[in-house]
């Protein structure tokens, strides 16, 4: 199966370097996307540019790809399901949830000079980063790509109710499936509350399992594809 891998904020396609070969060994055709503004040198990219890049990858697939979104990019994966509900076979969301229509994509930290840089590890103390040692944190921070303000402040637009028919698998790293279900029941994740087919799976990692548990993550993506 074609599997499109979309990393979250500050990441480019290299974030999946250890996941891609593991998925290939399992018989898949993974494609790790480098998004506009996150690895192509652009600082003027917009959310629409990133959505277009994901849709171009979906359209380029000869079949019905599995679209994997990590963290904030869970929204990008869901926007792909909204725009191509008959083409996306399933959406996998790792450590995140889709934003609602009319809300900002990822306006989490203040931008500087038109971009939102990685804010440092104090913002991710606790379960998010507990499985990253100091050297891994140093490498991550030095490679982190500031995300254009046109992306982070872009407004999410969802239009096709058929997106709710697309199956979803939520891979839960720093939170448990039970907690995720509580959030949905409490109305904090409206898009998943309306989705008709949602499954949950746990992974023993922090927020970035593609770095700390790549083979286990690949196995869980493989199981989601099956």
Automatic annotation (TrEMBL):
GO terms for molecular function: catalytic activity. SUPFAM superfamilies: alpha/beta-Hydrolases. Pfam families: Abhydrolase_6 (PF12697). Residues 3-219 form the AB hydrolase-1 domain. This is Pimeloyl-ACP methyl ester carboxylesterase. It comes from Kibdelosporangium aridum. The lineage of its organism: Bacteria, Bacillati, Actinomycetota, Actinomycetes, Pseudonocardiales.
């Amino acid at each position: 199966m074609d599997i499109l891998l979309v990393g979250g904020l500050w990441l480019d396609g290299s974030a999946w370097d250890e996941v891609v070969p593991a998925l290939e060994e399992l018989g898949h055709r993974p494609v790790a996307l480098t998004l506009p503004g996150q690895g192509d040198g652009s600082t003027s990219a917009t959310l629409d540019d990133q959505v277009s890049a994901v849709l171009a990858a979906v359209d380029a697939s000869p079949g019905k790809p599995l679209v994997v979104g990590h963290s904030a990019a869970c929204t990008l994966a869901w926007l792909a399901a909204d725009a191509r509900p008959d083409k996306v076979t399933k959406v996998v969301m790792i450590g995140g949830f889709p934003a609602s229509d009319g809300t900002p994509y990822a306006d989490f930290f203040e931008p500087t000079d038109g971009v939102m840089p990685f804010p440092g590890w104090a913002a991710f103390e606790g379960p998010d980063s507990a499985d990253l040692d100091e050297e891994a944190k140093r490498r991550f921070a030095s490679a982190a790509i500031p995300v254009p303000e046109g992306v982070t402040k872009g407004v999410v637009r969802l239009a096709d109710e058929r997106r709710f028919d697309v199956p979803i698998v939520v891979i839960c790293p720093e939170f448990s499936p039970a907690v995720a279900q509580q959030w949905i029941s409490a109305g904090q994740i409206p898009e998943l509350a309306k989705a008709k087919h949602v499954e949950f799976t746990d992974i023993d990692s922090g927020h970035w399992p593609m770095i700390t548990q790549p083979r286990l993550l690949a196995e869980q993506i493989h199981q989601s594809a099956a």
